[in-house]
Amino acid sequence: MTSPLDPDSIAQYLIDSPHFFEEHAELLGKIRLSSPLLGRAVSLQERQMEILREKIKVQDLRLADMVRNAQENDASAQKLFGWARSLLLARNDVDLPHTLVDGLRSTFAVPQATLRLWGVAEAYSHTWFAAAASEDVKIFANGLSMPFCGGNNDFEAASWLEQDVQSIAMLPLRSGSTSSATFGLLVLGSPDAQRFSADMATDFLVQIGETASAALACLLE
Predict the structure, then answer these.
(1) DSSP for 94-131?
(2) Distance CA 68, CA 88 (A)
């Protein structure tokens, strides 16, 4: 008696016999498979074409996503360049902080932005950006290895901004590496609770913080 055919054995036989359908080409038109796209039985060749079309569609979507990300990154890079250029064009040192925060608001559509510096030169000790910051703020800023983003939990730095700050980003300002002591804090705020979320990428904010740090270092004593 002939033993019942084992599906796994059939599959393995077809894998081991790559020329099977070349030798039995008529089967390609006779084998019928169900199509989840068409809702009816189709030939093996038609089903293969459906699978290929689906793979191509997935690849097209991935490519479109890559192109969109590249365009967004390019737009962000152009904005960063324009903002950095405005810092270089500042007429004098005391204009830098205002140019910096005003540029962040206009270039990056940040609703609110401000900063505080400590250890500034005597000539700048009475300016708005050298206003007092508590030791707690300085300790917090010094402990940041990367920008902080999240909801406003009544942070002291949020009081430097206008009212209705639902989310906040705080960027430490340092004259050197991340291990260097901070000399200030750059603060961005928004009434949108999701604008600066805890899970957002911070690579771009790091670049903003490093650029701001380099520009403002000339104000230190």
Answers:
(1) GGHHHHHHHHHHHHS--SEEEEEE-SB-GGGTTSGGG-
(2) 31
In the chain, the percentage of residues whose pLDDT exceeds 70 is: 88
- Can you give the pLDDT at residue 220? 95
Q: What global pTM score does this model have?
A: 0.73
Q: Per-residue b/e over 127-137, b at no fewer than 16 CB within 10 Å?
A: eebbeebeeeb
- Mean pLDDT score of the chain, rounded to an integer? 89
Q: How confident is the model at residue 62 (pLDDT cuts 50, 70, 90)?
A: very high
Confidence of residue 91 (pLDDT cuts 50, 70, 90): confident
